[in-house]
Amino acid sequence: MFSSIKAKIIAFYLIVISLSLFLLGVFLYFSLEKIIYDSIDSGLLSRAKALSTLISEDGREFKFSDELMWEYSSPKTKAFFQIRKLDGTTIEKSASLKTGDLPFQRGEEAVSFKTIYLNKKPVRLINFPLSNLVIQCAESIEGKIELLENYRKILSLSILSLVIISTFGGFLIAKKALTPIKDISETISRISESNLSERVDEKNIPSELRGLAVSFNRTFDSLEKAFNRQKQFVSDASHELRTPLSVILSHSEITLRKERNTEEYKNALVAIKDAAKIMLNMTERLLMLARLSSDRAELKFEEVNLYSILKDVVKLLHPLAEQKGIKITIHADEQLTAIGDRATLLELFTNIIDNAIKYNIPEGEIEISIKEDEDYAVVEVKDTGVGIPEEDLDKVFDRFYRVDKARSGEVKGVGLGLSICKEIVRLHEGKIEIKSRVGEGTTVSIYLRRDKDGFQA
Ligand SMILES: Nc1ncnc2c1ncn2[C@@H]1O[C@H](COP(=O)(O)OP(=O)(O)OP(=O)(O)O)[C@@H](O)[C@H]1O
Ligand SMILES: [Mg+2]
Question: Ligand 1: distance of its center to the CA of 389 in Å?
């Protein structure tokens, strides 16, 4: 039961309220009791003092008036007195005591008050010692005790009612306070794969829970984006794979329709081979992207020499550059290192330099530089190619995106190179930036961390 927040709130609330009301009740009861007893005691003291003034100095004569005696002797009266010697011998006592006596203890030297029972009825008593006598005065407090008793009953009943009302109030408060949480949880359980766009209403939520709602919404935003990206990716990938597949299918069908000569069979097989090559290239890149997006454990981060990687890449791509008469130069601090996985960094720079060659003009140039920034080593690849229009700059990292398909038509590619680069840079906790001017050229800058401090991988 106490695992529920509501039960905990109510229980806590109930304990606090009951304890406070109980303490208040005890305080009120004892305050009233003290006031009543103080007033009785001061009355008794006055009585004793009054009696003492009527006793002669040697204590043998009493000048008690009839009026005074009547006050003590009426059968209905609730007041008593008894005058004793110090040894307890009674000298005088009120008629109201009849044959009884007020209790006496020898040796009491100071004025003292106590509650006693006379004929089973509660009575308040004062012992008032004089030099050689003790005056005892008493008064029935039956009525006062009854009053206190009633007061205690009313107080207990009031406290009990207040506790019951508070429990009910606590229940309502807990219910009201938890409603927004219930709303949030209901909204969240409504959100499913087919309904990813629903959000928790942030406006009508108490400020304490707004942070929670905002985090939930943010999480669902990124989930929805990731889900949509995934959907888009699957549909793009199937779409892109359709083209070479239809080429293969149509060439095979047409060729098989009738008997062909060797030349025709050869041509068909070449077309099929080209399409299959595109498919292979595409599936390899798709696999690489999937591997990079899902599994970073495969990467081995270590200190790598950037110059040596870039030299290897340039060597690898040299035949391609030579075909177009493109000159590649590297200006760099040959010792500069960064933290990274050598094989994936090789893939990264191959893609960037491959683009710089593919989208360059014949006899163009490529300048590669390696610089130091505060926390990063920065590799810049600058080409003198066709450039990228400004409106396409932020889209070139999207999967399958190729600027102006007609323009890129004659250049082979599937539009996955920069997506792979972006993924590799993300895994390295680095940055990739692209600047370009149509007709002038493009500069791609890659920032890689120089040391392991603050590196999460
Ligand atoms: N250096 C560059 N100069 C001009 N355009 C570029 C450059 N680099 C990239 N682009 C443009 O960005 C698009 C995306 O590049 P990306 O490398 O992702 O794909 P791709 O080169 O077309 O295909 P591949 O997957 O084979 O690399 C390219 O199609 C091209 O239009
Ligand atoms: Mg490319």
Answer: 12
